[in-house]
Amino acid sequence: MVMQDYLEKRYTLGQIGVPGRWGYMAITLTVVGERIHDAEFHTYNCPTAKACGAFVTLWAKGKKISEAQELSVELLLQQTGPMPSGRSHCPPLAVAALKSALTRLTEEDTAANLVPALGEFSRN
User: Fold this and answer.
1) Tell me: the pLDDT tens digits for 27-50?
2) pTM, 2 dp
3) How large is the C-alpha radius of gyration of the chain?
4) Order of strands across the sheet with 25-32?
5) CA–CA gap between residue 79 and residue 50 (Å, rounded)
6) What is the model's pLDDT at position 24?
7) Residue among 19, 12, 5 nearest 60 (CA)
8) Does domain 3-102 correspond to CATH entry 1.10.760.10?
9) Is 17 left (phi over 0), alpha (psi -120 to 50) or beta?
C-alpha cells in the first residue's frame, strides 16, 4: 500500500441491534479511496449469524462503495442457500449492518465536504 493510500484510510462502523443481546451485528469497514480495503464483523453467539457476517465481509472486501451498496438479502441467500429453521433473521441482520456502515460513511463524507477549508474562513 502506498503511503498516500495509508493516509487516506477511512473507518466506519455499522451496527444493528444491541451488543450482548439476540439479533446484534456490527460491521467495521476500512475504506481506501472508493474501495473497501477491509471488513470485519462482530455478532452474538449464533453460527448462522456468524456465517452471514462472514459472507458479507468477505463479499464486500475489494468492492467499490457503490458496488457494496447493491448487496441484498436475496443475493446473500443465492450465494449461501437457505437458512436453518428459525434463523431467517440472520441474512437481513448482516445486510442491514453493512448498509448501516455504508450509510454512515456517506454521511461522514457529506459532513466533511460541508466544512470549509481553513483558508476560506474570514476574520471579522
Assistant:
1) 999 999 899 999 999 999 999 999
2) 0.82
3) 17
4) 9-16, 25-32, 35-43
5) 15
6) 93
7) 12
8) no
9) left
Give CA–CA dist 3/47, Å, rounded.
38
| Of 97, 86, 33, residue with least CA distance to 59 | 97
Task: Answer positive or negative: Cα dihedral of 42, 48, 53, 58.
Answer: positive
Residue-wise pLDDT for 43-88, tens only, equals: 999 999 999 999 999 999 999 999 999 999 999 999 999 999 989 9
Domain positions in the chain: 3-102
Q: Read off φ and ψ for residue 87, nearest 5 degrees.
A: -120, 20
Question: Shortest CA distance to 83 belongs to which of 48, 32, 42, 58?
Answer: 48
CA nearest to 101, candidates 44, 33, 52, 40: 40
Banded pLDDT at 124 (limits 50, 70, 90): very low
Residue 121: pLDDT over 90: no
pLDDT band at 122 (very low <50, low <70, confident <90, very high): very low
Cβ-based neighbour number of residue 37 at 10 Å: 16
- Cα 55 from Cα 46, distance rounded (Å): 14
